[in-house]
Every structure is written in structure tokens, then in C-alpha cells.
Amino acid sequence: MNKILKLINLKELLKGFVFLLLYMLVIPEVVVLLFDVFQWDISTPIYYMLAYSFIYVITLAMIFIGYRKTIFKEAKLYVKNFKKNFSLGLKYWFAALAFMIITNTLIISLAGGLATNEEANRSIISIMPVFSVISMALIGPFIEEVLFRKGFRNAFKSNKAFLIFTALLFGGAHLVSAFSLGSIWENWAQLLYIIPYGGIGYFFGKAYVETDTIFTSVVCHILHNSLSVLLILLVGV
Asked: Cβ(178)–Cβ(115) under 8 Å?
């Protein structure tokens, strides 16, 4: 236990979890309750977009308050070494993409379908294409990289520990929508999707660690999500 504690900054770990839980649970619940008060049906496209716009605005404000100093510093660092950072990020994005394609292909044959998270995203993209491009390809990647990667970077004194943690956390978070209490046994095959999502988290984490700027992994994430959204819009892949 003492060895583990020496590798972890508990204060930074707690801060990271608080910010992440606010984004994933608290803020969405508050927005949903607010919409219920006004009797706005969040299942309709217009109110769905409005609700998520509120969530994004509140989350971005939270990120600005919590990380504004280091985010601006890392933005300057990314621009200063743009060629090196972009090239390295591109390398890790290709690695993440290849890993995801291979593992997804194998898992789909076992699970009999796409990850629940992926199916939900495809449905949203088909109904709200413009909003999906803005939210999934631009805003979402920035928020997720800050909260899943930057938010926990200083919590670990070991790069290896950080990369394993961020991979598992990122992969696990993308499976949340597939389960409810008592449904894990029924949807056990969905657990396998932690592998491709975790792989993405690992490679994006590597891009961050090796450049010391979160914007390297943000750009990786934007490229990845943009490709996914465009493929669904253009060819329905």
C-alpha cells in the first residue's frame, strides 16, 4: 500500500474524479431536471441539442476555472513545437486507429454487434448531422482529453501507471451506457469493447506524455472522431 501511495498524488486524483463525475453525472442530471421543470422533452432533437449545449457550456466553464493556467501554457507549447507535436500525434493516432479496427473486427464477431455507445452515436449523427460534427468532432474531444487525460496526469508519478489508468478509465467510461444493475451478465460481450476504447485511451495518453501538451492528444482525438463522423455521414460505415 505504501508503494502505491508513493506513486499517486491523492489530491490530484480526487480532483480529477470530481471534475469527471461532474461532467458525466452531476451536470447532465441538473440539466435534465431543469428541462423537466419547463416540461421540455429532451428526446426531441431541438431540446436534445439545447440540453447538450448547456452541458458543454457548463463543462467548458468548469475546465476554464480548474485548468486555465496550464491549458494556455500547453497550447503555446503545442504551437511552438507544432511540426514535432503534430507528427508524433499523427503517429499515435494511426496506431490507435489500426488497433481499434483490428480489435473491433474481432469483438463484433463475438458480441454480434457494435458497442452500445457506438450505436447510440450513429443514431444521433443520422438525426442531427451538423450538431454531431460540432459536438462529437470538436467540443467532445477537447473536453474528454482534458478530463480523462490532463485531469489525471499529475496524479501519477509513473508514466506507465498513468497510461494504464487512463486507458482503463477511458475504455470503461465508454461502456457505461451498455449496462444497468443486473444487466452485466446479459451484456457480458459488451465488456470486450473496453479493449478498443482502452487502446485509444492508451495511445492518446502516450501522445500527451511524450509532448507534455494536452493539445497533441486533443488533435488526435479530433482527427479520430472527425473521420468516424464523416464515414457515417458519407457512406454509413
From this structure: yes
Residues linked to residue 156 through DSSP beta bridges, in sequence order: 8
23 domain residue, yes or no: no
Q: What is the pLDDT of residues 8-47, one digit of tens each?
A: 899 999 999 999 999 999 999 999 999 999 999 998 999 9
Domain presence at residue 49: no
Tell me the pLDDT tens digit for each residue of 36-57. 999 999 989 999 999 999 999 9
Residue 19 counted as domain residue: no
Closest CA to 213 of 147, 134, 153: 153
Q: Which domain holds residue 76?
A: 68-235
Number of domains in the chain: 1
Residues 6+ apart with CB under 8 A from 184: 191
The structure's pTM equals 0.91
CB 169 within 8 A of CB 202: no
How far apart are the C-alpha atoms of 215 and 197, rounded to whole Å?
19
